[in-house]
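Changelog note: in this version the structure field was regenerated for every chain. One regenerated record is shown below for reference.
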Amino acid sequence: MSPSLLEIRDLSINFRTEHGVTEAVKHVSLSLKEGSSLAIVGESGSGKSVTALSLTRLLPSPPALYAGGDIFFKGENVLTMSPDRLRKIRGGGIAYIFQEPSTSLNPVYSIRSQIAEAIRLHRPEVKDVDAEIVHWLKTVGIVNPEKRMHDYPHQLSGGMQQRAMIAMALSCRPSLLVADEPTTALDVTIQAQILAELKRLRAEFNMSLILITHNIAITQGLCDRMAVMFRGEVVEYGDTQSILHSPQHEYTKALMACIPRLGSKEKRLKTIDYSKLAAKS
């Protein structure tokens, strides 16, 4: 058995608002072993991204309040780390790919400048930074990286922007890559390419992966395990194939039923009946 890279134990996160305290994440417990992958699935507002951002305490506090629980990364509790230690973990230990590369990349700096900053911060031993940037851009499938690294984000397509984001994350040599809705802003063809790229890179570098997604269909073949979140809670957790083929919770079944299927004779897409879910929860 490989050791646990990440352990989330009974994590609860609240937000202070003008209307009072809102419970965003409620008693979540998850684990991830080195080299394995986990999908966190659910709709917008289910607590997926809040959970992901909490892994390196990226949630601004206030308004966020870590109300309970622990997050252990390589045996260290993230919630009690010093600011200096956190800076080393962010990017160097846990790297993120966000869902909107056009807003995640700084529009006034070239791709080279942005990746170089990450390398200098987390891998100061690298002597030839440009060669390292070219290597990672080539690794993620960007053609003519020697030229394209001098481009600004607006000069790249959405798919190339996302590949540049992946290259930036990988250049820090993280143990864990968190991909938060990495294909949301992309068309279906580019989505498939990015997902295939993540699968290839994970296998090539034996890297752990957490995929945050509302689309339960894309988890097959990419993630070993799955956690389904509903209203801030994990309602189903286990082997991805088992959940996809035999979902146990009503919410998971509802998510599966919403997936459009080729050849279906249904004239209308199914929607989730929250009144029934509330009655059963």
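Spot check on this record: The chain has a mean pLDDT of 90. The beta strands are 4-17, 20-33, 37-41, 64-73, 76-77, 94-97, 176-180, 208-213, 225-230, 233-239.
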